[in-house]
UniProtKB/TrEMBL annotation:
Compartment list: Cytoplasm
Protein name: Cell division protein ZapD
Organism the protein comes from: Saezia sanguinis
Keyword Cell cycle in annotation: yes
Quaternary assembly: Interacts with FtsZ.
InterPro entries named among the record's database cross-references: ZapD (IPR009777), ZapD_C (IPR027462), ZapD_sf (IPR036268)
Single biological process term from Gene Ontology: FtsZ-dependent cytokinesis
A cellular-component GO term for this protein: cell division site
Family label: Belongs to the ZapD family.
Length: 252
């Protein structure tokens, strides 16, 4: 099965982008080749760009606190494991404390004050702009022993860790709140009216990847509209006319 996720608002869109970038970064920094570390830095700079919103940290702290309060209200519920509940609340509290300790400083501010990193960042915005004749100091760094480069990378990435942990935990809680159900798109088309008075934040769609089908999604607080398409040999998207079985979950 292949999974597609569609956010209902800009906040979740930003969190999903950050999560994806953190996954890429985590993969790249575990490797030792200089090309991997080059793109690890590139990904770190992308994270800084996405995280540059002034209200991002405050928004995440507010949501962490909201989720803690909601989970605390579940104590004593016989259908819920107290041990698991305490573990999740502890994780959220740890995320809140780590992020809150950074104060009003935006995530990545310390990195932005590193002149060497910012020189590399500026040159990376130019196609092929990090050649040895452009940035000899960066070229030299790429040829440091892998252990030295890794130590530098882990130090820089650690400054973004509270943000990464917070976003990861909040998105996991959001996803856990959605239950997948089977659906049928008649002649490739599917529409669903959403119940009034309830705000959904994320739509998740699963389909067998062997079908080769792709979803085109339009969603707002009132309606979900889904059209399944297929790519032809020239990569052109064509609407399908057959019925399509898939699964979806709505996360509030």
């Amino acid at each position: 099965m292949i999974l597609y996720e569609h956010p209902f608002n800009e906040r979740i869109r930003t969190w999903l982008r950050l999560e994806r970038l953190f996954v890429y970064l985590g993969t790249l920094i575990r490797r030792e080749e200089l090309i991997d570390h080059h793109y690890a830095l590139h990904t770190l700079f992308e994270i800084m760009d996405v995280a540059s919103r002034s209200d991002l940290k405050a928004d995440i702290l507010t949501e962490l606190d909201k989720q803690k309060q909601m989970l605390n209200s579940l104590h004593g519920n016989p259908a819920i494991s107290e041990e698991t509940l305490a573990q999740v609340i502890g994780q959220l509290q740890a995320c809140y404390d780590s992020l809150n300790q950074q104060g009003s400083i935006r995530a990545g501010t310390e990195l932005a004050n590193n002149e060497w990193l910012m020189a590399v960042r500026n040159r990376m915005s130019i196609p092929g702009g990090t050649c040895e004749f452009d940035l000899p100091a960066y070229h030299a760094w790429l040829h440091y022993p892998a252990k030295e480069r890794l130590a530098n990378l882990y130090g820089w990435v650690a400054q973004m860790a509270p943000l990464a942990d917070s976003v990861t935990n909040l998105l996991q809680l959001l996803r856990d709140g959605g239950i997948f159900q089977k659906a049928l798109a008649t002649q490739g088309q599917f529409e669903l009216s959403l119940p009034p008075g309830r705000t959904f934040q994320l739509l998740r769609i699963m389909i067998d990847e062997r079908t080769g089908l792709l979803p085109e999604i339009s969603a707002n607080r009132l309606l979900i509209s889904l059209r399944w398409v297929r790519q032809d040999a020239n990569w052109k998207l064509l609407s399908v006319k057959e019925d399509v079985d898939f699964e979806f979950a709505l996360c509030a």
